Please model this.
Amino acid sequence: MRGRPPVLGVLAVVILCFAGLPARAGSLAAAQYGLQQQQVSVGNILIASEKLADPNFAQSVILIVEYNEHGTVGLIINRRGEIPLSRIFPKAKHANSDSAYMGGPVGITAGQALLRLSEKAEQATRILADVYLTGAKELIEKSITSGLDPSKFRLYLGYAGWAPGQLEAEIQLGAWSVRNGTPKIVFDGDPDSLWSRLTHEAHMQIASAAGISHAQ
Model:
């Protein structure tokens, strides 16, 4: 993945967590976790299942920021860290006490930022709608200096990575449900409760679909 090491331990953990499922594990997991039958793509949101016990990803919500033949890269968007921006960028004007997010277990010394921009900026890649990703120090420092609040700017340390086909295998095992991302989800005002709210919403959708099915 362009020099990015995949999170090789995740698949093994998922297999152990779901080893007891019967032969129809894929379809049962899809029914239980509201799995969307769709091609995974940049801008999708991964929601960890309640049975995913790996501490790196338990109760995580992940935004996919890269998906190609080299594999998949995502950022955990609901895990606030304890390191303030003012400590990471001590020379940047207006760097405040807002915390950086822990984007994943790989490359935790590297930072990337998600921004909401009215137009494309240099050194930024569009992920969805007006949400852009950048790893450029200059653009990150400029965003901090301009005083962008957490509804438009968030810094992530580290990332999550999957080798080609690895994420798809985990989804088939029921480790993740997939939904389309939105800026509202990415920049949610209460990220600490985001996983529980999205999980509850998925359960409600499943229950509603089951009710419609029974009614028919």
In short: The mean pLDDT is 83. Residues 108 and 158 are 4 Å apart (CA to CA).
